Amino acid sequence: MAERELQDALLLRLQEVDGGADSAEMAASLALDHQLVVGAVKSLQTLDDVIKAEQRSHKHWELTEEGKDILEKGSHEAQVFDAIPPNGIAQSELMKLPSGKVGFSKAMSNKWIRIDKSAEGGPWIYKAMDDIDDSVKTKLLLVQQGKDKTLDDKEKKDLKKRKLLSEVTLKTYWITKGSSFSTKVVKQDTDLTPEMIANGSWQGRKFKSYNFDAQGIIPDCGHLHPLMKVRTEFRQIFLEMGFTEMPTNNFIESSFWNFDSLFQPQQHPARDQHDTFFLSEPATATEFPMDYLERVKKVHSEGGYGSQGYNYDWKIEEAQKNLLRTHTTAVSARMLYKLAQQEVFTPVKYFSIDRVFRNETLDATHLAEFHQIEGVVADYDLTLGDLMGVLQQFFTKLGITKLRYKPAFNPYTEPSMEIFSYHEGLKKWVEVGNSGVFRPEMLLPMGLPEGVCVIAWGLSLERPTMIKYGINNIRELVGHKVNLQMVYDSPVCRLDC
Ligand code: FB9
Which of 87, 281, 376, 472 is the most buried (most CB within 10 A)? Predict the structure, then answer.
């Protein structure tokens, strides 16, 4: 029966009855599957109040497949009773029957059979009566006939326990006539077309009412990784503070820019294999501003600009080694050198947020790569107070107001400070970054004028992201084990605690 015919049949049936009709009874009277009738009811429900349909639940008992088998063959105990010949049978033979184990114990408890344990060759089983009443089969027949109400709860429970019966909940609809009931359903239009308006044919049509509660289809779309969401937040903070983003699109860097230009000596432990990833191909860089390189070599090996230097034999081969940059301060060095080439110095505020790579011990919060955030301010006569002020403004925008500083050491900044913030949730001071004033041995070989000071600071992107999204193990945030659903579900807007 087509869907439309079924809808018409339901409406006609509804016309004939007083009150209402049940969808399951309708399906039975039309000899149709109940789900077909439910589908037609749902279609009719979309019409303007032609019918009303209220969902109802009916619990009833049905025979399981095993129950149907018992109804056909008799209960397990009846099958065992029937299998015993007049002169009895060995228990071992009886147990070989498919229903032997279950049937034997039930038949014994019913006292339908008896056992002679003194028989030679093992226990022998006899019938203990001429005829039996197979009540299990009788009860199953009553249920099959829809008379399950004649069984009490204990009887049903016992049959359910033997997996012969199951309780089934059937969801049906109680259907009644709506205020606009009709046995002839006029198909409603869903679109008002320009032609209808032009020729006026809309006037003879019924339109389906808008369902303003309908939920829109959630479009498939891309999802930003939490790291990228927090990167955008940091980028916004820097831009609000008037900083310009540095070009960080070179993961590979020479040791010269990553270390030497920052006055980091060639024998510094950070420059060996266990802290840094060096490249084997191409292993070396060859393009350097040679006049600048000579000044760097001199300040390392002999000193200069008021510094005694490190007094070692600086080698260009060490500076030529290519590596994966260990910090974005290498980019800051390139930008400051470029700034120094200007005819006239102009103050700048730079920032960068990008990946850096360190061959370090991995743990729950550290991987071999992370995103470093770095801010740099270059101007005449900047002081440590200016650095503390810009840090206070930066971290306040992050929601971190209580800052403390601890003297630290970096090869390229003096003085240097570790930055701490009081974490209300953890009730303790946590390190939120590092900072300092770039040394003259770094700035003056670049060609920056005397008196120009550069203050800078850095932190990671992963730590604040993990805290903001409540992630404890960095491998849940980045890496091949990340659950993509976390990416889909991570909110863009958080009400940070
Ligand atoms: O990010 C770090 N901690 C942090 C930052 C923000 C934050 O926000 C919360 C939401 C409120 C929470 C925590 N740290 C720096 C401190 C520690 O996590 C530390 O264990 C790990 N550090 C990284 C380096 O570890 C190998 C974080 C990373 C770091 C450290 C120093 C710099 C950059 C990144 C720097 C610098 C610098 C210094 C002077 C001049 C220029 C750059």
Answer: 376
More confident residue, 415 or 184: 415
Atom 4 of ligand 1, nearest CA residue: 432
How many C-beta neighbours within 10 Å does residue 391 have?
21
Question: Is residue 298 within 8 Å of 313, Cβ to Cβ?
Answer: no
H or E segment to which residue 416 belongs: strand 413-423
- Residue 251 has what pLDDT? 98
For 390-425, the pLDDT digits (tens) are 999 999 999 899 999 999 999 999 999 999 999 887
Residues in the ligand 1 pocket, defined by CB under 6 Å: 329, 358, 372, 374, 398, 400, 410, 413, 430-436, 456-460, 463-464, 467-468
The pair of structure tokens assigned to 94 is 């009886």
Residue 314: other Cβ atoms inside 10 A: 19
Q: Which among 433, 399, 438, 395 has a CA at the least distance from the CA of 417?
A: 433
Whole-angstrom distance, CA of residue 369 vs CA of residue 359: 8
CA of 403 to the centre of ligand 1 (A): 14
Q: Average pLDDT in the 310-315 region?
A: 98
d(CA 75, CA 77): 5
For CA atoms 197, 201, 204, 209, the dihedral sign is negative
Peptide bond into 411 cis (omega under 30): no
- Residue nearest atom 13 in ligand 1 by C-alpha distance: 432
Q: Is residue 146 over pLDDT 90?
A: no
- Of the options 3.40.50.720, 3.30.2350.10, 3.30.930.10, 3.30.420.40, the CATH number for the domain spanning 227-489: 3.30.930.10
Instruction: Report the nearest atom of ligand 1 relative to the CA of 327.
Output: 33
Alpha-carbon gap, residue 178 to 50, rounded angstroms: 5
| Amino acid letter, 495 | L
- Nearest protein Cα to ligand 1, atom 34: 459
- The predicted-structure confidence for 237-272, as pLDDT tens digits, reads as follows 999 999 999 999 999 999 999 999 999 999 998 898
User: In the chain, count of helices (H) and strands (E)?
Assistant: 19, 15
Q: In the prediction, which pLDDT does 481 show?
A: 87
Strand boundaries in 178-225, DSSP class E: none
Q: What rounded mean pLDDT belongs to the chain?
A: 93
Least confident of 102-106, 301-305, 411-415, 432-436: 102-106
CATH topology for 76-133 is: Arc Repressor Mutant, subunit A (1.10.10)
CA distances (Å), 352 to each of 61, 247, 248, 466, in order? 70, 8, 7, 20
Domain regions of the chain by residue span: 76-133, 227-489
Q: How far is the CA of 283 from the centre of ligand 1 (A)?
A: 29
